[in-house]
Every structure is written in structure tokens, then in C-alpha cells.
Amino acid sequence: MAHGRVTMADVAKLAEVSTTAVSLVLNNRQGTRLSEDAAARVRAAAEQLGYRPNLTARTLSTQKSHVLGFISDQVTTDRLASGLIRGALQEAKRHGHVLFIAETESGPGAVDEAVDALTDRQVDGIIYAATRPHNLPVPARVGATPVVMLNAVSDDVPTAVLPDESEGARSIVDLLLNAGHTENVVIIGRSLDQPADEWLTVTVQRRLDGIWSALDSHGVHPIAQVPCEPWSVRNGYQAVHDLLRAGIVPKALICLNDRLAFGAYRALQEAHLRPGRDIAIVSFDDDEIAVYLDPMLTTVAAPSEEMGALAVRLLLDDSRLPGEHLVHMPLRVRGSVPLPRDIEIEDPAVEPNWTR
Q1: pLDDT of 309 over the 70 cut
Q2: Architecture label for domain 65-157
């Protein structure tokens, strides 16, 4: 039984091979003359002894730490965006890397401190992620460390991963309109005519552009656009409550996120209007509560985990193709939009539910 940290020499002794042979097997070197039996003995001995590689020594020899950094602009405090971290963690592990996470909380100097903490640990690359995807400056102190933006863009970094908001918005509005819900359409969340402000992020602008592109292609003009920031359950409820009190009764609601839709459900039900029957509703994000509404909410899913995983793959790819890498937003077709039986849905990722 070895004492202290298990070394390659310990593994070699148990497997009855040389230390060089152990190094070749455990580092997956190709083209060795070792027999399959010897390689199997090495792996079995390493597992039996609980061998772990000396990462400091490996870093010195390969110039790679196998550690990635994840700078989070409030992502860890956001329930939906935490999927970005889950996806990145799982993909990093799959590639034999560890992910260090630094939360900035938007404090002064916090990003610089996070960059320093990660570069001091010689990370192989940094993912810079945000909850609300503004154009974020990246400190020059990152130096030569590779960086990929996640759910954000930067003039300082050429590679970014974003949800395909325009395509997602078009797909869900096309679904609504192709199902025949073209009259008295109302948009809840923002007006196209609003001047730019802090809520008009990269993705919000593209979400709006996709909605209007789909409406225009069907010749549909909304009868009302109700701005309400933040996009909360309370504001969704108040927006629809006020519309109904003003005598404006929509036949279709396009809510800019699920939380607005949750509030809209409550306001409609108080007015004895039935979502999914009297009024069709579509939304964005696929919050986990969406399937517990009655009827279940038709929405476009935020592909957070897929985005996090893609950011890791790009970071580990030496070519690191510049530009925006857009991730498909799948439709979740449920009961809040009455659908004709013969409607064709092209998206293979839909989850139809015809009975609720």
C-alpha cells in the first residue's frame, strides 16, 4: 500500500511494468509497443491505487492547466441563466477540464479582480457570461488568454455564443398565426416604438425584430403594444388587467417572456376568459413552471445548457472561429395555442400536446 500521494512509480510496481510505460498509457500516447494486456494492467493498477495525475507537473510539461475560467455577470443569481453554467461544467468535464467560476455581481473592479484570479491560476481560457446580453468590455489584462463571450458580445472579443432569438421569435409567431390566431393580437413587454434603454439588449432587439418580421409576413398588425419592464409576473398581470379594463380584449397574446405570461393567465382568468380557448398565448424561455399552468404554455425554450457547452468547445478549439455562434431555440408546442389537427410543424424539437 502506497503512503501519501500515489505516484507513477507506485502504479508501475503494481502493474509490473516500467514507469515510462505507465506514463505512455495514462497520457493516452498513441503508437506504443505495449501489449493490450500490459495497458489494461496499468489502468487497473491506477484505479486500484486511486492514482491522480500531478497537474502542476503536467502544466509545466504541456503548458496546459486543463482548467477553464468562467466569469459570471450575475449569471449565478439567475435561475434560467444558471443553465449556462451547467452546460459549461458538463462539457468541461467531458473534455477532462475543471471549471473555476467567478461571480462579479457588477461591482466596481470586480471583473478585473476575476480576470486576475483566473489568469494567476494559468487557466487555458475564459468564458465571459452575462444574464442580460449587453456589449461588455473585456479588460486588457486578459492578455493572450483565449476568451469566448457567452450570452453576451464584446468589441474586444471576436467569438460569441448567443441564442438565435430572431429565428425563435419568427417560429413561435408563425405557429400562432398559421393556427389562425391573427385577430386582435397584443404584444406584452415592449413596444417597437420605444426609444433604446437599458432593457433593449442584443437579444431583446432580435426577439422584437423576429416578432415583427413574422407579423409583417402575415400582414398582421397588433392592436396594442404594452411596455412593462422588468418582465415580471406582477407586470404581466397588470398589463393585461389594464387592457381589459380599457375595453381592449385580445384574441392572441405575444408575451416577451414566460413570467409576463404567468401574470397574463391570472388577469385573464379573473375576467373569466380562458387561456388556450378564448385567447391564444405564446411566450419565450420555457420556464419550468410553464408545464404546470392550465393549459400548459406554448413557448420557445432558452437553450442555456447547449450554449454553455458550445462556449467550452469553442474555447478548446484552437481555430476558435470568430463571429456569432447562434444556438437554435426549440419550440415547445402546448395547449395555450389551439392548433388545427392538420397544421404542419417543421421544427423537430417541438413537444406537441394536443389535449391540454
Answers
A1: yes
A2: 3-Layer(aba) Sandwich (3.40)
